[in-house]
Amino acid sequence: MRLKKKKNRHMAPPPPSEDLQTETMDIGTVESLHYDFNTIKAATNDFSEENKLGRGGFGTVYKGMLRDGNQIAVKRLARDSGQGDLEFKNEVLLVAKLQHRNLVRLLGFSIEASERLLIYEYMPNASLDQFIFDPTKRTILDWEKRYNIIKGIAKGLLYLHEDSRLRIIHRDMKASNVLLDAQMTPKIADFGMARLFKTEETQGDTSRIVGTYGYMAPEYAMHGQFSVKSDVFSYGVLLLEMVTGQKNQCFQNGDSIEDLLSFAWKSWKNGTTTDIIDPTLKTGSGSLRDIIRSIHIGLLCVQENVVARPTMASVVLMLNSFSITLPVPTEPAFFMRSNIDPEMPLLQEYTSSTGSSGVEKPKISKSRSRSSQYSVNDVSISDFVPR
């Protein structure tokens, strides 16, 4: 992605619908986001092990403290990104312009020789998965807190899909990519896998499958087709995880283990939805109706039919208005019933081969090149890759 510098600082800005590749870069704005490398080096105690928050395929994240006392999270990118300084700065500028209370805020960047750093606001309560999947910590999240988180994530995704300057599809929406601030406000993180579109564009195809298998919409995991509805599917999985307290790869049902989506669907159809609700949520008075309604919304989001899934605008409306009659959900996609680990993060080359049936079948490359690297822990690691 090669963007042109402004020759005339008084030139009128391009209209919002203009293609990203012809957008001019505001040099002054970019430089205002620049941090001195030595300042960040000192803030992280020379990137010490004690300050390390996590490591992934694209770099390491450190906690830092600036001289003014403000805490930051510093993402030290791997040195083989292959991206030029101008491209890197433009990606930073784009992400920095995303301002929403439910998105993690990018504060700036630093470049020193081959070193590239991204500076984010620090989230003291780490990621959502560390709460909802922990038997002790999940008790902190009563229904009111969980419902506020569910609604906050929906608002953040709606902003990315419809209200930001460009349409942005996240492509890796999951519990570990939702960070929590001191007030437990959810903040969507990791835009390294996001795909940027002009506002009139709604979908795309790719040969580069990225994300986490258990959260992926079937049309994306199997055919590389993605759209805003792919994020809606991932959001639906996350919503069901929030209500059940269970990870998507399995759900404990007596002596047997079932797929979360299929069991949620069967429970809803059989009128036994209360069986899948996190037991810690059943103690609240008057919340059962809202919890069951949320499961209903989650099932609408994970329908196999892309068209049948609601938009995030509809989801936000359904979450905030109990007078709206919800449509009846159809069967969710059960493609997770395979020998592929649903928790497996994917950032791999996608190819397809024709099987004996003559049908095009997906084949995931096992190459461990840079394109197959991924975050292996609970900390969000971004890869800034130009389109």
TrEMBL record:
Predominant subcellular localization, coarse grouping: membrane
UniProt KW Transferase keyword: yes
Basic residues composition-biased segments: 1-10
Keywords assigned by UniProt, alphabetized: ATP-binding, Glycoprotein, Kinase, Membrane, Nucleotide-binding, Phosphoprotein, Receptor, Repeat, Serine/threonine-protein kinase, Signal, Transferase, Transmembrane, Transmembrane helix
Keyword set includes Nucleotide-binding: yes
GO cellular component, one term: plasma membrane
Membrane topology: Single-pass membrane protein
Binding site for ATP: K75
Domain Protein kinase: 47-323
Positions of the UniProt region annotated as Disordered: 1-22, 349-387
A Pfam entry, by short name: Pkinase
Protein family membership: Belongs to the protein kinase superfamily.
The protein, known as: Protein kinase domain-containing protein
